[in-house]
């Protein structure tokens, strides 16, 4: 996704804050070196890896199959669902970055698994809905997309 200069500055601000923070509760302190090397803000982590958003708005993944230090390798996350999740997680974790939250397309429908709320109750705790990646909606591809351009002429 393309970020405006102002939005890039906001991501940069959060990144500096993250790198300078000594708060042990901050997300994945182990990622500080990788975040500094990649100039990317950690926004989400699970058992498989961590997602970071660069100041340009690109989504990177640091996989957990390695030690998270300054030599940790990262790659651009290509999966649109993980990229979407990174934006959602970023907007939740850093209110200043709420512009990253994806906007609901007109064609989207409410997620049936969570009734459009984005979260589900699991053993009495609210959990991120896996059906819609906590957006509360699902994008439905058009059944018969109109042909684009003219065939042949
Ligand atoms: Zn849902």
Keywords:
153 residues; alpha+beta; 2 domains; 8 strands; 24% helix; globular; binds zinc ion
What does this structure look like?
With 153 residues, the protein is of the alpha+beta class. It has helices spanning 5-20, 32-38, 80-93; strands at residues 40-46, 49-54, 59-63, 75-76, 109-110, 119-122, 125-128, 137-138. It has 2 domains: 5-100, no CATH class; 109-138, no CATH class. It has 3 helices and 8 strands; from the N terminus they run ααββββαββββ. Zinc ion (ZN) binds at residues 111, 113-114, 118, 129, 131-132, 136.
Q: Layout of helices and strands, plus pairs?
A:
Elements: H1 5-20, H2 32-38, E1 40-46, E2 49-54, E3 59-63, E4 75-76, H3 80-93, E5 109-110, E6 119-122, E7 125-128, E8 137-138
Antiparallel strand pairs: 1-2, 2-3, 3-4, 5-8, 6-7
Bound molecules: zinc ion (ZN).
Residues 111, 113-114, 118, 129, 131-132, 136 line the site of zinc ion.
Rg to the nearest angstrom?
18 Å
Largest sheet: 4 strands, antiparallel
Mean of all residue-level pLDDT scores: 86
Helix content class: 10-25%
Query: How many separate domains make up the residues?
Result: 2
The DSSP helix count reads 3
In a few lines, what is going on in this structure?
With 153 residues, the chain is of the alpha+beta class. 24% of the residues lie in helices and 21% in strands. It folds into two domains: 5-100, no CATH class; 109-138, no CATH class.
